[in-house]
């Protein structure tokens, strides 16, 4: 069952108009929220980011917080037991013709679905993954979680074809992020990541990793990371809601550090697992 504009429907019944601006212009925003044991993880943070994305594209949020909560809860209740990822999408809806400028009356299209959340392969966690780099091909507002993902899709496909798991972007000689992840660089015991500005998506997993690192008194800096620093990292991690924290052990074919997940990664996994256990027992894990 999926949710579309106030109704729960089977996937084959859910239909949107070919004039939907999501379809014609990629005019919409989205969220991906992991669900562990029927409970959405960091839901408030995801819905806050959805608010920011909608405001940034001048679209009013069609549902209030209670309505989002009710809809998501009901969608989860309709799935078999297990871990899920909830996809939410809001587009600017339809006009009666195609025009770049907005329709005078806007009726957003709201869509949500649940997909099984598969844990990352054990091999990735044990040995790390391979990544490639390329010049960041995207626009200047990567902080908006927009559905227009053609550059990201092309990059991911290019990485996949070359047997890599992620494409890492560089803009003006500095690291931005991955095609669908944020990147952390560990160097000389410090945890470094790109500042949350318009060049990157302000990842919720990134936010939690920073929070856990600071709580554990690890040295953390949000700074521009030059290409040379990226290439001489002791460790690299990638973070996202669907994969949590994954160690990167190859960059453009070269080993990262010693070519194996490092001690700081193992430390973060422990912090993460402890936080998840606290969250499962009802505690708030991010202030
Ligand atoms: N993508 N950067 C980009 C470009 C992303 O697409 C994502 C996540 C992230 C990580 O953000 P978060 O920790 O909030 O998931 C960073 C999702 C998972 C996707 O598009 O499917």
Automatic annotation (TrEMBL):
GO terms for cellular component: cytosol. It comes from the Bacteria. It is an enzyme of class 4 (lyase). InterPro entries: Aminotrans_IV (IPR001544), Aminotrans_IV_CS (IPR018300), Aminotransferase-like (IPR036038), BCAT-like_C (IPR043132), BCAT-like_N (IPR043131), Class-IV_PLP-Dep_Aminotrnsfr (IPR050571). Keywords: Aminotransferase, Folate biosynthesis, Pyridoxal phosphate, Transferase. CDD domains: D-AAT_like (cd01558). One of its GO terms (biological process) is folic acid biosynthetic process. Its cofactor is pyridoxal 5'-phosphate. Its EC number is 4.1.3.38. GO terms for molecular function: 4-amino-4-deoxychorismate lyase activity; transaminase activity. Pathway: Cofactor biosynthesis; tetrahydrofolate biosynthesis; 4-aminobenzoate from chorismate: step 2/2. It catalyses: 4-amino-4-deoxychorismate = 4-aminobenzoate + pyruvate + H(+). Transmembrane segments: none annotated. Involved in the biosynthesis of p-aminobenzoate (PABA), a precursor of tetrahydrofolate. Converts 4-amino-4-deoxychorismate into 4-aminobenzoate (PABA) and pyruvate. Belongs to the class-IV pyridoxal-phosphate-dependent aminotransferase family. This is Aminodeoxychorismate lyase. It comes from Candidatus Macondimonas diazotrophica.
